[in-house]
């Protein structure tokens, strides 16, 4: 994971148990990898429940912000060190150029001496030595012209404008941190120079996470971040937006108006969306038992083929949220399409597929992470009857 997107891989640990957290990457839209920090030591080693997990970008961004904040007073020292480093690199390059010029001069002088020491009677040898001398002189002249152009473009000493540019970049560390030329490996190396460990503690199953950074030298910095959670009920402030949404719905506001009021009052939904949308408000009201939807009535919907369900009907039949079933269809875990006339999601599911989706819905949260491991373990166990290996050994003999 040296070049991966997880900036705190190997540094982050769980605040509850003290064990190091592992990194799992999830592929999002467009093929982008999103790291997830998981503390599953007790689950994998002792069969207990999963300790905690949280999305990587939220804690990475917070730790990076604290890192840049801690480095701000040292901006002047950073600029001086950077200027000194650039100056040293230019002197090294200039020394290499001078060594090349010196070698070219030695080669030309050696070719001259060889030509002068040759016997005039050996015309072929003298002619070849003369050509070698001319080639060495031309090579030395060409290299000298290249060095002059290089020295004119990049002088050995930094100019006042270049020093000012380095000082400005050092003063604006966030711009350097977010620059496209700065790789994840560079960011990780910088973090590991300043931080020894990052401990995170999730408050129950809510969105609140306490972060403690142990800096090199023993100093500690504590902060609190907000992680994305899976459902509304996990939010620590869920009763407040629920009560407010019910109040606005009773007053006759539509979904867009309710979403705007909730966003204006500072409420935020779960997962990674930054604000409430009409669809999110619809899910919230449905969870509260308030049916407000623009979905056409069942009698107005077009007829479907055999073993096809409207997504809302199948979700109600399975007793699961519509957003979860829609997510399965988008990820390929269920088969469906968007109806061209009704503009609603249709799911193809025969009786066997319905039972499979029902069983998948009843799988405990986080259990799908263990299923590939259990399948591999079952495949590696020797299921041959006793005595089969002995017979095979006798056949080989």
Write the layout of secondary structure elements.
Blueprint: E1 12-14, E2 22-27, E3 33-39, H1 41-46, E4 52-55, H2 56-71, H3 75-117, H4 123-153, H5 160-171, H6 173-177, H7 184-194, E5 195-202, E6 208-215, E7 220-226, H8 239-250, H9 255-264, H10 278-287, E8 308-310, H11 311-318, H12 322-331, E9 335-338, E10 345-348, H13 351-361, H14 371-380, H15 388-396
Parallel strand pairs: 1-5
Antiparallel strand pairs: 2-3, 3-4, 5-6, 6-7, 8-10, 9-10
Helix pairs in contact: 3-4, 3-5, 9-10
Roughly what percent helix?
40-55%
Low-confidence stretches: 293-297, 386-397
Estimated structural class: alpha+beta
Order of helices and strands: EEEHEHHHHHHEEEHHHEHHEEHHH
Give the rounded overall mean pLDDT.
Answer: 79
Q: Alpha-carbon distance between the termini? A: 48 Å
Strand content: 5-15%
Rg, Å, rounded: 34 Å
Structure summary, number of beta strands: 10
Tally of domains: 4
Number of DSSP helices?
A: 15
Strand order, sheet with most strands: 1-5-6-7
How would you describe this protein?
51% of the residues lie in helices and 14% in strands. It is of the alpha+beta class and 397 residues long. The protein folds into 4 domains: 12-69 and 178-226, no CATH class; 74-171; 232-287; 305-372, Multidrug-efflux Transporter Regulator, Chain: A, Domain 2 (Orthogonal Bundle). Helix 3 (75-117) packs antiparallel against helix 4 (123-153), helix 3 (75-117) crosses helix 5 and helix 9 (255-264) packs across helix 10 (278-287).
